[in-house]
Amino acid sequence: MNSEKILQYIRQHCNADDWALYISYWDSHETRFAQNGITQHIAGPKLDITLNVSYGTKSGSATVNQDDENTLAFMLKTAQDIAAHAPEDPEFMPSAEKADLPEVNNCDPETKNLEPIQMVDIVQKAIDKAKAFGASVSGMTEKHYHNSWMFTKNGFAGNSERTNFGHSMTIKKAEVETKVDYEAKNFGGFDLDRDFAQLQAQAEALADLHVFEPQKIAVIMRPSALLELMWFMGWMMNRRQSDEGFTPFTDQLGKPFFGDKFSWFSTLKQPGLLARPYDYEGIPSKEIAWVENGMIKNMPTNRYWAKKVNGTPCSSYNIFIPGGNASEEEMMQMVPRGLILNRLWYIRTVDAKSGELTGMTRDGVLYFENGKVKHAVNNLRFNEIPHDATRRILALGASRLASASSMLPTMLIDNFNFVDKTSF
Amino acid sequence: MKYLDLAMNAANSLGAEYADIRIQKTTDQVIYLQNLSLKHTNTEVLYGYGIRVFKDGAWGFAHSNVFSDEAVLATVQKAFEIAQLSASVNKNKKLRLAPERSYIATVKTPIQIDPFEVPLNEKIDLMMEVNRTIMAYEGIRQAVFYLILHKDEKLFGSTLGTRLDLTSLFIDPMIIATAVHEGDSQSRTFDEGGRAIGWEWILELDLIDKAKQIAQEALIKVKADTLGPEERRSLILDPNHLGLTMHESVGHPTELDRVLGWEADYAGISFATPEKLKNYRYGSEIINFVGDNTLPQGLATHGFDDDGVPGQKWHIIKDGILNEYGSTRDTAMEIGLGYSRGCNRATYYFDQPINRIPNLYLLPGTKPLTPGELIADTEDGVYIQGRGSFSIDQHRVNFQFGGDFFWEIKNGKLHRPLKKVLYKSCNPEFWNSCDAICDERFWRPFGVVNCGKGQPPQSARMTHGSAPARFRNIRVGGSQ
Fold it and tell me: Chain A partners of B456 at a C-beta cutoff of 8 Å?
């Protein structure tokens, strides 16, 4: 695949008033294991080439996955035909112009060059450890190399190269199930012994399970649980959707809407955190506060809406929630009783306007009282409004990497609203 | 067919116990119109092949988008080497494949009007008219029309000698009207979930009429009352709503790979474990769920699955008892089934196929019963139409569902419209609480085109169906 050759073809043959070209190349290796054996094992490259074209304010696009001239000609003709038949778009925006892009470092050569035999060795060792622990393990070991380019007729030229390594493990021993996972742009930070020791400790803590009824109660929400809530809150916090009255954030820009212990940024300054240099519209990534000490400072805004409301286009490219210095032990001392949540699962929007979500706990819930963990409890369902929950934050732990693109703290949140329980 | 033979001969030469190649071209046309602005109009063609090699009780899968003898042979070699690596781990846990014969067949989704041949301006004109119809209602703030046309063309060959030429296609129109009133915002959606049929379906649907209906109902909904505290009530669920409920609480728990724990790390496992087969009361005696990958217009009706196993029809729940699973050649052997039900499907050429929900539907009631008679026979309850919020635990036991449109039922009549209604239940309580299902005149199919599962994630499609049904004594209430 030669991105320059594809670009030259479009430059020479596209007769549209405007165009934007996107090229994405992946090379991945994915080893999936379950119940102590490999069930899937996948390898291969992928290519995506997308061309958006416009005549006046009429636009169309086409995507192909091969870069020979016949296929590129097909893509060009298809996109141009669509645009020719499209109606005038009252919200049309010309393609991005030349922009200064931040320097990022998302690509790790060691991860890119990881061999399949190394990955299978990790799986074998994980299974051996699980067997020694008298358990079964399921998970996935994966590495990805991704290189993408964006070019426009108006002069934008961007390239983004990144790697990603992930290893997840769900262990099952008797009735106990729990999970740890590692996902980062570099393989070097991965330590199977460390992760399995954590998995084993989690499993041992969950062995004594008691029935627990749903109620409002304080929770210590670990980063892997918080991350699931943040995805949904991020999707809701869209400037246009809010301005048009569809989200809880309507008319709240510039106002203290979240709890004052809560801040939320996208940042280029955390070296471990994946940060793409630009988004699909060509908006360069920059330091941005979405929420600072509870006040909504910015909301993701596309170029059209920014122009309409005289704002600045911006988009979220990673999640950084600054933390504090409270340990879980200290958090347990701050409230009479509560639950420790490892992970949340199957979160869905209950009411988009109020921001209410539902979901379940997963992979282990611990009950604590008088500063000490007493026992594990069954999984619970919550119906909760996350921005409202931030007003009940009592303490924050240190931020740590929860995924390649998120760095979050453990949070102590009061009166988290559990409404149902399940049988395990 | 040249590459099928080349790849299978190469796999045999390398010593594969079994191998297959799936050459797949997927064409998607997506049009997204919002408030008369075309946000996205794209045609995507993804073309390549995936090769599976089974060796010493383990799989290797490699894919490529390069069509040449050298590339095909290199991809076979890669799949073989990966299978060998997998086998080195599976020494004491070898997979086995259920016996299967060879087939030579050509199967195409029957259509009258090829939707890809309908001129784009005709599609956009219709969509604009639907958008305008919705926007004409005062109080409506947003009108969305999202149209997907999807076609898979596959050539499949296996070392069993199977050679298949399969073309499947579906259309999925979705229309949303969103109203804003006194600080609240509520949407109403027309969404049949897709159907394997030609453009003739769109012409039959009368989408302008549907647009008027959802705009009017969005305005009713945004001004409607909420239900108040949760209480045990009767529920009457329409087929569109039930399609999602059965997908989550019956379809996924009876996928055999989940039952075996193969999805433990991500999508979850299942409470419906093998010792419950033929004896576990999953639902009341009127509950009969059928897996049917021969269903006309069904989204999982492809002729054959990606194991080369033909589409079949079987009872998953029979007279309320767990009867059988949806299975694949490798999962079936884990419980000694000896045959696959043909549920192995991949999304794109670069995806390794996994155990999927078949077309799965609830058989209608056997006694004459209309929805009107069912409502008239209900003292206190809620009638739910359409799909809303849905969430279920990773064992597929506890769940909470919303809906798209709600009516309170009082003394056998639709009393008042409601919004923000939720119900909570669990398996096996929910399906055992079903005491009435309308008859076959009211049975309707509904599709799911975005069933997410697997690592790496894949999106599959299947059709569900039912007639309106009543569930007694369910926890129903309003959201916060």
Answer: 28, 30, 42, 142
- Listed by start position, the domains of chain A span 3-200, 208-424
For domain A3-200, give the CATH number: 3.30.2290.10
> How many angstroms separate the CA atoms of B107 and A66, rounded?
27
Read off the pLDDT of residues A230-247 as tens digits, 9 standing for 90 and up. 999 898 999 999 999 999
Cβ–Cβ contact A61 with B under 8 A? yes
Summarised one tens digit per residue, pLDDT across range A115-156 is: 999 999 999 999 999 999 999 999 999 999 999 999 999 999
Q: Side-chain half-sphere of A264: how many Cα atoms within 13 Å?
A: 29
Give B294-313 pLDDT, tens digit per residue: 999 999 999 999 999 999 99
Structure tokens at A375: 């026992």
Q: Which of B42, B47, B89 sits opposite A120 (nearest CB)?
A: B89
Domains and their CATH numbers in chain B: 2-223 (3.30.2290.10), 226-478 (no CATH)
Residue tagged 């016949």 (tokens): A70
Question: How large is the average pLDDT for residues A347-355?
Answer: 95
On whether the CB atoms of residues B272 and B418 are closer than 8 A, the answer is no
CB pair distance less than 8 Å for B120 and A86: yes
Cβ distance B89 to A124 less than 8 Å, yes or no, reads yes
What is this model's ipTM?
Answer: 0.95
CB atoms within 10 A of CB B427: 24
For chain A, the C-alpha Rg in angstroms (whole number) is 24
Whether B480 has a pLDDT exceeding 70, the answer reads: no
Judge if the upstream peptide bond of residue A284 is cis by omega within 30 degrees of 0.
Answer: no
Task: Find chain B residues with C-beta within 8 A of A360's C-beta.
Answer: 391-394, 398
